[in-house]
Amino acid sequence: MGEASRSFDMKNLISYSDDLIKLLKSERDSTSLSKLLEQLNILVSQTDGDFKCVQSSILDYQNKLDLCNQKIDAAKSEVAADSELDMLQKELEEELERERLLRDELR
């Protein structure tokens, strides 16, 4: 009867050990998960900050591009106005030349 009781105690002891191992494992897992969750929250916070910074930079560059496009349009209109002035100046010179020729003929 001693061996049967000893065998029974060993089975209980093994069962208890298995339960204890599962418990300890689950506590380690929960600790690990908690640490991972903290790290995840830190990472999310950092990426949100980086995203806001990048988004702000994109808006700044978009504003700079818009300003450059406005300057380009203004320069194009000045060039068009300058070429129109050049054309009018040339027409005026041609008219003055014709007038001079007509005066010379009249003399």
UniProtKB/TrEMBL annotation:
Positions in coiled-coil regions? 58-105
Question: Biological process GO annotation list?
Answer: regulation of chromosome segregation
Highest classification ranks of the organism? Eukaryota, Viridiplantae, Streptophyta, Embryophyta, Tracheophyta
InterPro entries cross-referenced by the UniProt entry? SPC24-like
Q: Which domain of life is it from?
A: Eukaryota
Q: Does the keyword Coiled coil apply?
A: yes
Protein name from the UniProt record: Uncharacterized protein
Q: Which species?
A: Heracleum sosnowskyi
Q: Which UniProt keywords apply?
A: Coiled coil
